[in-house]
Write a structure and sequence with these properties.
The chain is of the alpha/beta class and 280 residues long. Helices cover 38% and strands 15% of the residues. It has two domains: 171 residues, Metal-dependent hydrolases (TIM Barrel), CATH 3.20.20.140; 58 residues, DNA polymerase, domain 1 (Orthogonal Bundle). Strand 5, helix 9 and strand 6 form a beta-alpha-beta unit. The chain binds adenosine monophosphate and manganese (II) ion (3 copies).
């Protein structure tokens, strides 16, 4: 069986490792096919490709776009995108443009809760300043002894109703998918099991995603339970969506599942890579 991981982050967004280091991990994990999918950013792709391909790993250029759908944040992964495509590049630049402002507001909100210096602290931890985000704030909160780990930071802070949460308008589902398609890529709905929505809203999300040109859904991903896998495999079939799998690797130490170590897709799924030319 091919080892495939189609969702990973480097420090060009909120991962902890440089693109070359993430690629080296994909190689070490024995991946046959591997995608780097940084949030709203394509900067790491050249470096990652060079390391992966030198080791005979089929590299898939990717991205994970932040979307606001029905007042909630959802993520859309683009696979096999052309990183030179101007429509995609301009779209992502627009998505990134609000991040520093949001981070400043997060810093103000945390200061009100008695935590000083978080904006400066988070910014210092962001390798790519434009991409400063909640993970950098979470790391700042850990480093300064406010919480014991990143997971706890996201429980006590940074989420709706907690200090440091600032609502933000990302791009629309239709725009994100259209940029991915313009760049020749395939749009995949990321980690659907993570969205806290009821059945009816999930169906509405999938319907709209499909209607605007989405073609895939992550069935296997780090925080999907066996029940999630079964449920989303069924929904993939129902909506005629291809199935994807990815670890959503961010860091070797932050409790996300390891790169390249994923259970197989259910046999009922048509994998997103079913018609890709694969390296053997
Ligand atoms: P942002 O795009 O800045 O709002 O940050 C979103 C990122 O925060 C996600 O891509 C995850 O990497 C991280 N994140 C969100 N929720 C959690 C959580 N509960 N535990 C750990 N990381 C999380
Ligand atoms: Mn992330
Ligand atoms: Mn995501
Ligand atoms: Mn991700």
């Amino acid at each position: 069986m091919l080892k495939i991981d189609l969702h990973c982050h480097s420090n060009c967004s909120d991962g902890a490792l440089a693109p070359a280091e993430v690629a080296a991990r994909a190689v070490a994990a024995g991946c046959d096919v591997w995608a780097l999918t940084d949030h709203d950013e394509l900067k790491g792709l050249d470096e990652a490709r060079a390391v992966a391909e030198a080791a005979g790993v089929r590299f898939v250029p990717g991205v994970e776009i932040s979307v606001t759908w029905d007042k909630m944040t959802v993520h859309v992964v683009g696979l096999n995108i052309d990183p030179a495509n101007e429509t995609l590049r301009a779209g992502l630049e627009f998505v990134r443009s609000g991040r520093v402002r949001r981070a400043q507001a997060m810093g103000v909100d945390l200061a009100r809760a008695g935590i000083a210096g978080s904006f400066e602290g988070a910014l210092a931890l962001a390798e790519n300043k434009e991409m400063v985000g909640r993970t950098h704030f979470a790391r700042f909160l850990v480093d300064n002894g406010h919480v014991k780990d990143v997971q706890t930071a996201f429980k006590k802070f940074l989420v709706k109703g907690k200090p440091g949460y600032v609502p933000h308008q990302w791009t629309t589902l239709a725009d994100a998918v259209s940029w991915i398609r313009a760049a020749g890529g395939q749009a995949v709905l990321a980690h659907p099991g993570r969205y806290e929505i009821g059945k009816a809203r999930m169906l509405a999300l999938l319907e709209e995603f499909k209607a605007v040109g989405g073609v895939g859904i992550e069935v296997v991903t780090s925080n999907h339970t066996a029940e999630h896998v079964t449920r989303f495999a069924r929904l993939a079939a129902e909506f005629g969506l291809l199935a994807s799998c990815g670890s959503d690797f961010h860091s070797p130490t932050e409790g996300w599942c390891s790169l390249g170590k994923l259970p197989a897709l259910p046999l009922s799924c048509t994998p997103i890579w079913h018609d890709w030319p694969l390296v053997h």
